[in-house]
Structures are given as structure tokens and as C-alpha cells.
Input
Amino acid sequence: MPHRTPPSPTAAPEDEFDMYGIHLPLGGWTYALDDTPVVYGPGWYPFHRHVQRTEPHPAAPLLTRSASTGRTVPTSVRISPDTEFRSWRNEYALLRPYDHRVHAHLMLFVEPRGAGAMIRRVTAEIDLRASRVTVPAQCPVRLREQAEVKAQRAMDLLLAARAERRHGRPAPAAVLHPGLRHYSPRYPDTVEAPRLAAATAQETW
Output
């Protein structure tokens, strides 16, 4: 994927209703990778997918099959709180890579409304080279702490993934959501989380 200059972080001008929206206190949870299949690749941003090509099927010449090209490209991924599996609605976040910068697309809880909640869409920027998060100026003051905490936790996940990559793992393991680990034999049942301190701003890839 060629490097692109990311747009400026933004915030939606108004709240919107999510009929299934939930309120998750900030507490002590962390983000985990809630997406597959994902592998590690080179660059500031660690999450990649294999590039596939289409080729004739050897057992059925009229059919085709997908085959790996041996290359990977950075890919957007979904992340979620690590305390429950696949019921997060507005607490999911999307990471979209550019160069050394990554956009975290967040849906912030504003207030309960009926059986759901009002939310505000905010895009924060994560600069992996500078180890810095930026919340847009348009983010309402009452939501800034929530946005800053979630953006920082998203950066912590990326730094943990980079540390795990440096330890030689070909694909996410400790940073993968516990609810996904048993779907692939490459993920052991018990993995030790990498030390965030090992990921430093001095890295250049």
C-alpha cells in the first residue's frame, strides 16, 4: 500500500442515535485485535493481510482458486475491549493505516437514550513515530477524556503488536482478542503479553 497523507482528525458535528448503543466505563480494560486473518508485516504499522492472486484450479481447469503471492499489505482492522467477545456495538473501533500515522475511528458514548444510546463519531490520529495521539479540536469537551483514553489505548495495542512482531511472531497472538485465539492453531491457548516498554519511539520500521 503506498504511503498516503492522512486527512486531519475530525469529529461529527452532531450526536446520533444507536438503538443498540452501550455504555462501557473506561475502567481498566485494554483494546485487543478483533479481526482475522491478520499477519505481521514490515513498516511502522504492524497489521497486514496476505495479497492473493487467482489461478486455475489444478484439479478442475474450468475453476479458479486463490493463492498467496507471498506479499502482504497494511490493512485496516477492527479492535474491541478485551473483556467480552463480539457484543460491543459502539465500543468497536477501526484502525486505518496511512504512513507512520494511523487513524482510530471511534464511536463515543454520549448518554443513554431509550433502550440504546446517543453516540458521537470521532476520528483520532495516532503517530507511531512520535508516540503521540491527537484528538480533533471539534471533539466536545465533555467527550475529550473518553476520546483521549481510547486513542491512547489503541496506540498501546499497536505498540504491543510491534513488540510482539520484534520477538519473531509471524502473526498476532498476545494482542489477539481471547475469543479468537482458539480459531487458529498458530495462537497458543496461553500467551504472555509483550512488554510495552520494549516498543520505543526510536524504531524506524
